[in-house]
């Protein structure tokens, strides 16, 4: 990772990349966003390519919380008759 981190810093000058050695703790990536949200990704036992991919995903993320949908489908005009199912009960 030491070889890929400087290249990642140069390609992304808008990011603040800090390396810190914490003995006794698993390695992790932390993303702090402008909307004051925070995401932490554990990178224990990952290859340098996978760590770079996790860092890229943190960079591309918007920092919003993941919201679970209440229904399986989202539509502007819900059915008056109810949702369609595949099993036919006769």
UniProtKB/TrEMBL annotation:
Keyword Nuclease: no
GO terms of molecular function: structural constituent of ribosome
GO process annotations (BP): mitochondrial translation
Domain Ribosomal protein/NADH dehydrogenase positions: 1-62
PANTHER family in the cross-refs: 39S RIBOSOMAL PROTEIN L43, LARGE RIBOSOMAL SUBUNIT PROTEIN ML43
Family: Belongs to the mitochondrion-specific ribosomal protein mL43 family.
Name of this chain's protein: Large ribosomal subunit protein mL43
Naturally occurring in which organism (per UniProt): Olea europaea subsp. europaea
